[in-house]
Fold this protein.
Amino acid sequence: MQSVDQQVLGQARDWLHAGESCWLATVVATYGSSPRPVGSLLACNRDGRIEGSLSGGCVEDDLLEKLTAGRLAQDRPQFFRYGETEEEAEQLGLPCGGHLDIVVEPHSPTPPTLAHFDHLVGCLANRSCVERRVLLESGTFDCRDVADHAELRYDHDNGVLVQTYGPQDRLFVIGTNMVSAYVAEIAIALGYDVLVCDPRPERLTSFNVAGARKVGDMPDDAVRRYASDSHSAIVALTHDPRIDDMGLMEALKTDAFYVGAMGSARTSANRRKRLKQLDLKDTEIRRLHAPIGLPIGSKTPPEIAIAVLAEITAVRKQCAADARAAIESIAAGG
């Protein structure tokens, strides 16, 4: 599975390499309730083919009609607002009181444009970040490689759009069991690229979750190969310390934004002692989320999976401590 950005930019690149002109549209601001976040992308060509989404409503059809009729963004990038009135918002399927601002760019298959899109798609394929800048008045654009993702910036007065594209978040699951299956299914629904690792061939063969890739390597080798960057989360779910600890030894040394392991409080305490004996630093061991997941009273495999993905989401959004405190307060009757 590719990230949405990679799919949209990749399709635009393919059209350009085929000699076709196309448009790239970006949501630069939303007001009120909006079904798609700022930064959402859509690409379309003159034949009416669309990749991506701006609203999930009728905006896409209206935009395509305006573009192909020559009423929008023909020679240079153009700003456009949808949902100026309640009637227009209702007609276009926007939520009540919501409207969205977009920037639409026309692109033709010139050598500089081809090189530009090749570089963007290449960065995403290599799981690296790239910052792209568009100047609406001149119609020029450029890009540069960057270390981290940044929020989209749009200067309406000066007509400058700056957006960072980054790789799809990846969830690396160690172990195949019922909890792993539910974790993988929910993560895929949330847009993660899911890899499931188990060195036991019979277990891996019988694990079937559509969209999840299976890896038969030893966990430490697989972590190094597939999940060592800051866009990865790693969860150890086997309940077998011989397998889980092997993966965790390596995972806690990586840049992964989340590392967690399933088990009770006692099991987790014993695991930390073992990791200490394996020469991991205290700072590395403190990165481990164990017991895994937010404390929502989960008992069944699907409930545990929900708790795990909720905690991963909170960590990714940098609000894990607040989420955990709120849940514990509710459980205590606060």
The mean pLDDT is 89. The two ends are 42 Å apart (CA to CA). The CA atoms of residues 22 and 271 lie 54 Å apart.
